[in-house]
UniProtKB/TrEMBL annotation:
Subcellular location(s) per record: Endomembrane system
Pfam families: Man-6-P_recep (PF02157)
Annotated transmembrane regions: 166-188
Predominant subcellular localization, coarse grouping: membrane
GO CC terms: endosome membrane; Golgi membrane; trans-Golgi network
Annotated protein name in UniProt: MRH domain-containing protein
Organism encoding this protein: Rotaria socialis
Keywords (A to Z) from UniProt: Disulfide bond, Glycoprotein, Membrane, Signal, Transmembrane, Transmembrane helix, Transport
Matches recorded under PANTHER family: MANNOSE 6-PHOSPHATE RECEPTOR-LIKE PROTEIN 1, MANNOSE-6-PHOSPHATE RECEPTOR FAMILY MEMBER
InterPro entries found in the cross-reference section: Man-6-P_rcpt, Man6P_isomerase_rcpt-bd_dom_sf, MRH_dom
Leader sequence segment: 1-19
Gene3D superfamilies in the record: Mannose-6-phosphate receptor binding domain
């Protein structure tokens, strides 16, 4: 009921701005639709449908996502829990942005008959609702602080919900080094019966590496000092 009331209100107080970008200018500041989406997965999943207990909706701002063969490159999809089937109802193309009386509205289509109206309400409390108005019209009502223009800044690491390849490599490398060090200490202590500094794995190698590093630094310093002396002369 709340969603339908907002829909009627917006229809009579509408100001439309068309853009292909995910950032929109408003009198209160920049609104960034990317803060309402993740890459490759919907930020809003299993959203309950008002008046339709067997329907569940998903929505993602800005970035297309795919969950099944019938929900590909989507902005929004609906799942019928009785038949366990998904249907694409909106794509991330030809969005129509509206800002009126502090309420953001984004209108999507599926490229055919379906239309999805997404209402974004500025609120510190996070919530999401959905409704099917008729066979081809759907509504989302999302309350979030990020619906307040200028309130949220998009950061790629948060919108993706995962770690980068470099971060994963570093974690694996550090973990492998830690496991090697612990296993070596246990082996040296309980099998070789070593103690003290002898518990350091490959101690002679590390000592030699430190020795060579010191000589390398001394060599570089000497070269620099000699060069400075020639320049003064």
């Amino acid at each position: 009921m709340i969603v339908v009331s907002i829909y009627v209100f917006i229809i009579f107080n509408i100001h439309i701005v068309k853009t292909d970008d995910c950032q929109y200018s408003t009198p209160e500041g920049i609104f960034d639709l990317r803060t309402f989406g993740y890459k490759n997965q919907p930020k809003y999943k299993n959203v309950a449908a008002s008046g339709s207990p067997f329907l569940k909706f998903s929505f993602n701002g800005c970035f297309p996502y795919s969950t099944t063969d019938t929900c590909k490159n989507a902005a929004a999809c609906v799942t019928d829990q009785i038949t366990s089937t998904d249907m694409l109802i909106a794509r991330q193309v030809n969005r129509k942005f509206t800002y009126a009386h502090g309420i953001i509205t984004i209108v999507y289509t599926d490229g055919a008959a379906s239309t999805v109206n997404v209402f974004l309400i500025c609120n510190d409390t996070e919530s999401a609702q959905a409704a099917q108005i008729n066979d081809n019209t759907y509504l989302f009502n999302i309350e979030s602080k990020c619906a307040c223009p200028g309130k949220c800044i998009y950061t790629p690491d948060e919108s993706s919900g995962g770690l980068t390849g470099g971060a994963i490599f570093i974690i694996i490398l550090v973990s492998a080094m830690a496991i090697y060090a612990i296993a070596s200490v246990i082996f040296l202590r309980f099998v070789k019966h070593e103690q003290g500094i002898n518990l350091v794995p490959n101690r002679n190698l590390w000592l030699q590496l430190g020795h060579d590093s010191i000589h390398g630094v001394r060599f570089l310093v000497a070269r620099i000092q000699r060069r400075n002396t020639y320049e003064e002369v």
